[in-house]
Amino acid sequence: MRNLTAEHLFNVQNILGEGPLWHPLQHRLYWVDIINGDLYQSDESLTAFTKTHFDCQIGAFGFRKAGGFILATSRGFATWDKDQSEPIFFWNPLPTNRSYVRLNDGKVDPAGRFWAGSMDTQNALGALYRIDPDGSQHTMLHNLGISNGLGWSPDCQIMYSTDSLKYRIYAFDYHLKSGNISNQRDFVKLPMDNSEIVPDGLCVDAEGCVWSAHWNGWQVMRYDPTGQPISMINLPVQRVTSCCFGGNDRSKLFITTAREGLTPTDLQDQPNAGDVFVCQTNTVGQSANLFEYF
């Protein structure tokens, strides 16, 4: 197995840094701190960043083809442009009787649909939702614990979806035209032992390999299309949350991390917990898809 090394990029000390995404037109990196409700944006030189604060938790976002963002939040789905003071909320599928449930990871698929799941660590009653370019709204999966990392194979035949509470990355047959998924099966299953290493966010490169961030694992693992681990990026922090490809040739892997739940001793040993890292890889990623609706 090949070992790669990540370099420190941004000192942000996010409580729960997540959802990095490289804008294919702006050539900037975006990510969120879910707990603080902050959306971050880098400059083109990757030397500075700004952030926008929201009055809700932002679990994930996607770039809209018309400009701006689609957001998956603790209050449901919304759209937002930088000239708007507040997001415009248009669908909240979250149960009203479970205040601890929120939307979590999400991503735009190759046909311009936006997918995002919810997390319910108490009852494993989360779900995976889909919003189509025609505005129709769909619940695609039920009884999830923590709906997490999503991605699609380069040939648009397979969709990957993570359930962190079940220590699994699933693979599905994916139908590009309809958006339907079927034939759910295990792609990767991590051991459910006392180490509590769980799969978190992911991305898929142009070779069809899956890069999965491992919460509590100090690493990002690269799996070949059969689910076998072939490369590993070591990080100096424990709670690695997600990753995306970007840079001018999409060969850099950007990695978000978290400080949530770490003790003062942990943080003393991990001063860069919650920061953003970058790794130069020997492959390239797929470009981020743009949301077609609105």
How does this model look, in words?
With 294 residues, the protein is mostly beta strands. The chain has a single domain (2-291), classed as 6 Propeller (Neuraminidase). Helix content is 2%, strand content 51%. The strands form six sheets. The chain has a five-stranded mixed β-sheet, with no helix packed on it. It has a five-stranded mixed β-sheet with strand order 10-9-8-7-26, with no helix packed on it. The protein has a four-stranded antiparallel β-sheet with strand order 2-25-24-23, with no helix packed on it. Strand 21 (219-223) and strand 22 form a beta hairpin. 47% of the residues are buried.
Fold blueprint:
Elements: E1 2-5, E2 7-10, E3 17-22, E4 29-33, E5 38-42, E6 49-53, E7 58-64, E8 69-73, E9 76-80, E10 88-91, E11 102-108, E12 114-119, E13 126-131, E14 137-144, E15 147-152, E16 158-163, E17 168-174, E18 181-189, E19 198-204, E20 210-215, E21 219-223, E22 229-234, E23 240-246, E24 252-257, H1 264-269, E25 276-280, E26 290-291
